[in-house]
Each structure stands twice: as structure tokens, then as C-alpha cells.
Amino acid sequence: MQLEFVTNACVSIRLSDGRTVLVDPWIGGSAFHGSWYNFPPLLPESLARYRALEPDWIYVSHIHPDHLHAPSLAHYPKSTPILIGKLPHDHLHRAIAAIGFRHIRELELGGTSRFDGIDLTILADFGSSGDGYVDQTGYAMDSSLHVTDSDGASILHVVDNCIQPDDARALRERFGAIDIALLPYGGASFFPHAFFEYDDDSKAAKRDAVKKDRLELFLEITRILRPRYCVPAAGSYVMGGRIASWSRYLHQATPDEIEHAAQASDLGGARLRQLCTGDVLDSGTGEVTRNANAVFRRYSSEERCRYAEDELGELPLAQDAVAIPEEFPLPWQRMLGKARANQRAMQRRLGVFPAVDVELLVSPGVQVTLGGDDRLLYRFALDEDAPTDAPRMLVRFRLEASLLYMLLTGAAIWNNAEIGALIECAREPDLHDPTVHSLMSFFAL
């Protein structure tokens, strides 16, 4: 079995009989409404090659657009079988069907399916955030892939699914020795760069703390799983448009930082393999066939940020294209009230009422006004249907009216806009509660 690294979470798994499984293809173009771009970037010849692939299967782990990237998927034959986990909701299935794929196979989460000599298991969401916080909404959206080839070689692809030490122990007990494990080493969120009450020094300190924690977790998971080869994956991207400069606050370890951390740590016998676009790792020998044309094989944080600002800084965000003439003023307060009513209805279904006050601070967009006002304020309590004496929290979200229009009408999803750092945030006290952010995804018309 061979693993070819493409970019971010995307890899191509070549089985011993030549068949291939393409995983999470995000190949060129932007994700998260124009805010994310591949880094290292894919050269034109790589873009052409990967878009021309005809994989035997495509596995999509979850609905985030750096994994379910519709413009990338559109290049592949619509007859290609798509493999996904059987989630409690049909969002992923519907999104893939909307691209035009006709053969979507949902596999029972945790069960092992036999495909002409290979065993394939799609693992359920591990149920936590990267820091181990549990989302009270219980909204399971992620999955992971384990493949065992007919010759016994195996690959585990985890990346965004937030694996914790107990999860790794369970996987080791279930699958035994794994040849190649692709594991997360960084993280993707709008923290700390989009938190508007932090100064630059605070953002840098928080970035470094998160980067250190994520890298230590990568090493710990590797020690527990003890694969023959561990591959850090799904942690490298940059931001574009007018938020390109925020790339400096992304908590991504550089290749040198990963290597130095691994050298100073006990990896339980695993050997580190850092791969660039086009590199191929053999599961049997551990040899890497390196792509001689790969760019940014070794890079510093400064080089990454300079690329983002110089090459991507002038590109538009998706919300910049939203235009509403001034002579057609929108009934913002009525729309917001309706969105809140829909959110409250979902909270009643879920039975989740955190003691949190939410403020939306809305500014005009590039081509969307607020009827002559320079700011719109909307405030509500998430526990208004079930008030308690619990300590209260205040979360402020700051965003442009053009993005708010996209969120209200379903053209954008709150979770995606947050990950893309298109929504800014402040909170009192300064604590993370993933439940609040999940509930905001139901704030729509």
C-alpha cells in the first residue's frame, strides 16, 4: 500500500492491486467563503494532475469545505462512488448529491465493510473539541477512516476528528499495529486571530500556547497508537483577502518545529514522515519518493505569512460580492427576530440552554448598508426559555452586514464563517464554550 500526500487532509491511497481511494480533496481555490487557501500552494501542473484523477472511491470525512470542497469534487466523474459515514443527519449526503454524484454509499459508523478484498471502517466523531471540551448539542459531524489492504497493510486517517488519548487507546486495542497514521498536529479555528479584544502580543502568546498543546497531543497520540509511520496532516493553510495578515496567528507548527519536537520525544517506536505535495510513502518499506518539484518543503512562519499577504492579500472575500441597493432597505430587526425564534425552537428540541448572553455587533458591508446607521446591535439570552442562577457569560460577535445576510439566508453557515475568521469574537469571562458556537449555526431564517 502506498500513500501519496496531496495537500492539507487530502491524500490518495493506492492499494496493492492498483485501485485508489482519494480522501477529502480540497485541491486549489479558496475555502470558507474566500478566507482559506492551500499552503504550500499547488503548482499548475499539480492542480492539473490531481484534478484529472479517476479514483475508484472518494472518501469525504465531513462537511467542512476544506474536506467537502465542491469546486474540487466537481472535476471527478459523477459516477465515482463516494464513501461517507452514516451520520445522524443527512447534511453531508445532501451536499454531495447536490454536486451531482450518483453513487453515495453511507457506511455504518464503527462497522467494518469488505470491498473486494479490503476492509474499510469509518469511525464516528470522537465527540470532543481539540481541547477536549464536549459540545452539549451533541452535534456529530466528523469521521475518520481506517483501511486494511488485502495484504494486511493498514492506514488510519484521523486529521480533523479531535482524537484524545482514550480514543487512541481504543483504536490501538481494536486495530492493533497500524502501518501509517495520519494525525492532526495543529488546529483550525478563529482563535486567537479573530478575537478583537486581544492585542498583537496577546494573540501571539495564545497562538504559541495552542500550537504547543496541539503538537504535544500529536506526539502523545502517536505514542499510544504506535504506528510504524506517523504523518502530520491537515494543519497547514493560510488566509487570504483583507484578513491575510491574520495568518501570522494561526497555530500551525512548521516542519522544523514538528521535527524537533519528535526528535525530543518518545514516539513509541513510530517514525515521523513529513510529506509534501506529490510525495509517496510506501507502507512496507517506509521509503518516501519525494516530489522534486514540491515548493515550500521547509518553510518558516515568516515565509508562510509573507506568501499569504503578498500573493493573496488583494483577493476578495465571498461576502464582498453581496450587493443590496440602498433603495431596498432590509428589515434587519425583523429578520434577526425570526432567526432567533428558529434558534430557540432548535434549543427546545435539543434541551440545551446555556447561561449566555449573545450580542451581534453588525457593521455595513462593502456593498450592503444598514439603512444609514453605522452599526446594528442585536442582543439575546440563550437561556431565556430556561433561566437559571448559573454564572452568566457574555459573548460578542462582530461581523459585516453582507455576511450576516449570507448567514440568515443560508448562503453561509455560522460554523464555517467562524472557522474562516469572518466573524470576530470577544467573551466575558474569557472561556471557551463550544455549545454556544454550535447553537449559533441554527441562527438562520
Characterize the structure shown.
The chain is of the alpha/beta class and 445 residues long. The protein has 2 domains: 2-312, Metallo-beta-lactamase, Chain A (4-Layer Sandwich), CATH 3.60.15; 319-440, Nonspecific Lipid-transfer Protein, Chain A (2-Layer Sandwich), CATH 3.30.1050. The chain has helices at 44-51, 70-73, 91-99, 165-175, 200-225, 255-263, 301-312, 332-350, 401-409, 414-419, 434-440; strands spanning 2-7, 10-14, 20-23, 30-31, 36-38, 57-59, 82-85, 104-107, 112-115, 118-124, 143-148, 154-157, 180-184, 229-233, 237-239, 271-272, 280-282, 288-289, 356-363, 376-381, 393-400, 424-428. A hairpin with a 5-residue loop joins strand 2 and strand 3 (20-23). Helix 4 runs parallel beside helix 5 (200-225). The model has no long low-confidence stretch (mean pLDDT 95).
